[in-house]
Amino acid sequence: MNKKGTKIISLMAVFGCVAISFTSCESKDPNSPGVEFMPDMYRSPSLESNMGYVRISENGKLTTDTLQTNRLPVAGTIPRGFMPYPYANDTAGYAAAGKYLHMPAKLNTAANLAEGEVLYGKYCSHCHGTSGLGDGPVGAKLPGPPPSYLGPVLMALPEGKMFHSITYGKNLMGSHASQVSQEERWKIILFIQKLQHPNGAVAAADSAATAKK
Ligand code: HEC
Questions:
Q1: Which pLDDT value is given to residue 65?
Q2: CA of residue 127 to ligand 1 center, whole Å
Q3: Does the Cβ of 142 fall within 6 Å of ligand 1?
Q4: Sign for the pseudo-dihedral over CA of 193, 196, 198, 201
Q5: What value, to the nearest 5°, has the Cα angle with vertex 192 and ends 186 and 195?
Q6: CA-to-CA distance for 109 and 100, rounded, in angstroms?
Q7: Over 70: is that where the pLDDT of 150 sits?
């Protein structure tokens, strides 16, 4: 046998002994989990989210450690890009949104209309139907199917009230605020208005409806 072979055999013998000694430790207690090679991996510190990690320092005082999780945001701060919605989820808020809330004019573009159609297909058409007649496959299963966008009630609904109902939901329709951003809600409304007024004239219809409120 060459030198290399002897080396391999002796290494195997060492590993064998180590393995046997581990097994013998284990066999003393049938409930023993055995040897833990990396206890840190099994017993990681449990960190609470938004709490920070509190550790008792050497002098016995509670201190916050460098191992921190997210902290609660400072009171009054809002996430970057977030727009607060000022109308309350009640009848007065609904009425006020109908009166004062309007689509920012810069959003009224062909590209946004196309995007609105895609979003409508993802989040609304299964209830409201692809043409907005309230005949989507899920809408048909509801105790009361959604009203048609082309019916007299929704034809006269100001865009602010549409936005409000998408934001908070209405009766059987849940809130869609977490699914579609404020800008996306307007894009969808552009598409609903297109369904309602295939030949345009959205702005005139909306201001007439608003004037009536
Ligand atoms: C689970 C089915 C369902 C989904 C999904 C749904 N709706 Fe509705 N929607 C309804 C029903 C039902 C009503 C009728 C609510 C009522 O007036 O009682 C309604 C009403 C509305 C109204 C009229 C609100 C008003 O103030 O009278 C608008 C506008 C509307 N939906 C838009 C949308 C848009 C946009 C989406 C997608 C982002 C959507 N809906 C998703 C079921 C749904």
A1: 54
A2: 8
A3: yes
A4: negative
A5: 150
A6: 21
A7: yes
